[in-house]
Design a protein that fits this description.
The chain has 13 helices and 23 strands. It has helices at 13-24, 40-44, 71-76, 79-88, 108-120, 172-179, 198-204, 238-244, 263-273, 279-283, 289-297, 311-322, 378-396, and strands at 2-4, 6-9, 29-32, 51-54, 62-63, 93-95, 100-103, 124-126, 131-137, 140-145, 149-152, 155-157, 184-190, 194-195, 211-217, 223-230, 234-236, 253-256, 324-326, 330-331, 339-344, 362-364, 372-373. α1 links the parallel β2 and β3. Residues 9-15, 32-35, 40-41, 44-46, 50-51, 131, 158-160, 163-164, 168, 170, 172, 338-339, 366-368, 377-380, 383 line the site of flavin-adenine dinucleotide. Flavin-adenine dinucleotide (FAD) binds at residues 9-15, 32-35, 40-41, 44-46, 50-51, 131, 158-160, 163-164, 168, 170, 172, 338-339, 366-368, 377-380, 383.
Length: 397
């Protein structure tokens, strides 16, 4: 039976990076994946350009039942460290918005970089490989693969979450955690569009494709200022994806469609200057025309001139546009979610090494554990940072 110093299951962002770092530190590493290509999510990410990190990475941008868990790894392998590696490989990048860094050319460059780093570390990679069973004894872990068995004293689970099953996502990591008696927190889709109840969805169908800068808030007070996109299924866009990670089924969200406008002052000023101007045309100065027309057809915006708009109507209008309360029907689920919230309970793991406290030699890195970042490169940074912390631990032993 072939023996390795470390076996890593999952050739995604975290698994490839960990394999490369551990291999370069001298470990004999086997990297296993069920897919025919490594880094499939990386290739799909950031619209094909991979938003590989965020300049403003900080622990506050991560959701976890233990918000302190991510601090150590993020501080030890930072966004600047990863940018340094990207620069070393001559990959050109740019900041798109809000500190989000993307490749100028293609996400393939990040995968190529990781493959090159794995080659440098002499990592053995087995693709299209299923792990049929894991047994543990005093020698370590024996993995039954399709065809043969392999052995290691250090097993790293980097199999990711449940989002996008079409890209190879499986509950494998959660099952391994449960097999070894580790707690797995309930999972749900994050960074995912909202679906709407039928009557409202039908009313808003015509707005599909309209995008509005907005501030959207959850019932717990968390809010995001970014674009909201109307879709044929409901609501999407960065603001909605961000908020979805904080939303619980049944809750309302509040949308401010004019976050940068003192609407009362604007309407009063316009009324003074152009009393006979229609309310519709006045609002179209601040909002997309299609949105204003749709809201007027739905009788949410009165068909009046500014001088006809009475105080009560104006107050109601301001409330509707700046505190629009919507109750999502649900989310589009794992099919389109970018991440999975929940997962292996971080209380079971060392925040320094990612090793299971109860099972020496078993490690979890990346999205499989209960650490989920905001939209904008934070999830890849967690993959790099947690993988690096684990690789350091593999080196020390
Ligand atoms: P993954 O990258 O998901 O890798 C897990 C690997 O394990 C996969 O290769 C999978 O095939 C393999 N695997 C699973 N089960 C098994 C099994 N049973 N046996 C063997 N192998 C298995 N984050 C950002 O920061 N920036 C972005 O721009 C961004 N864009 C995204 C776009 C999309 C469409 C999606 C879905 C996600 C995006 N994310 C982005 C999130 C990011 O991709 C993940 O957080 C990140 O890939 C997690 O890394 P990971 O290594 O933990 O898991």
């Amino acid at each position: 039976m072939e023996k390795f110093d470390a076996i890593i299951i999952g050739a995604g962002a975290a698994g490839m990076f960990c394999a490369a770092m551990a291999g370069q530190a001298g470990s004999r590493v086997l990297l296993i994946d069920n897919g025919k290509k490594p880094g499939r999510k990386i290739l799909m990410s950031g619209g094909g350009r991979c938003n590989f990190t965020n300049l403003y990475t900080e622990p506050a941008a991560y959701l976890s039942q233990n918000p302190h868990f991510c601090k150590s790894a993020l501080a030890r392998y930072t966004q600047w460290d990863f940018i340094g590696m990207v620069d070393k490989h001559g990959i050109a990048w740019h900041e798109k918005t809000l500190g989000q860094l993307f490749c100028d050319d293609s996400a393939q460059q990040i995968v190529d970089m990781l493959v090159a780093e794995c080659e440098k570390g002499k990592v053995t990679t087995r693709l299209r490989s299923e792990v049929l069973g894991i047994e543990r004894d005093e020698q370590g872990f024996t993995l039954q693969l399709n065809g043969d068995s392999v052995q290691t004293s250090r097993l790293v689970i980097a199999s990711g979450g449940l989002s996008m099953p079409g890209l190879g996502a499986t509950p494998f990591g959660y099952k391994v955690a449960e097999q070894f008696g580790l707690k797995v927190l309930p999972t749900r889709a994050g960074l995912v569009p909202f679906t709407l109840h039928k009557p409202l969805l039908e009313q808003l169908q015509v707005l599909s494709g309209v995008s509005v800068p907005s501030v959207i808030s959850a019932e717990n007070g968390v809010s995001f200022r970014e674009s909201l996109l109307f879709t044929h299924r409901g609501l999407s866009g960065p603001a909605v994806l961000q908020l979805s990670s904080y939303w619980e089924p049944g809750e309302y969200v509040s949308v401010n469609l004019l976050p940068d406008t003192d609407l009362e002052a604007f309407l009063n000023e316009q009324r003074n200057d152009h009393p006979n101007q229609s309310l519709k045309n006045t609002l179209a100065m601040q909002l997309p025309k299609r949105l204003v027309e749709c809201l007027q057809q739905l009788e949410q915006i009165p068909d009046v001139t500014l001088k006809q708009l009475n105080v009560r109507q104006q107050e109601e209008l301001i409330e509707k546009l700046q505190n629009w309360r919507v109750q999502p029907n649900g989310t589009e689920g794992y099919r389109t979610a970018e991440v999975t919230l929940g997962g292996v309970d971080t209380n079971e793991l060392s925040s320094r090494t990612m090793e299971a406290k109860k099972v020496p030699g078993l490690y979890f890195i990346g999205e499989v554990m209960d650490v989920t970042g905001w939209l904008g490169g934070y999830n890849f940074q967690w993959a790099w940072s947690s993988a690096w912390a684990c690789a350091e631990a593999l080196r020390c032993e």
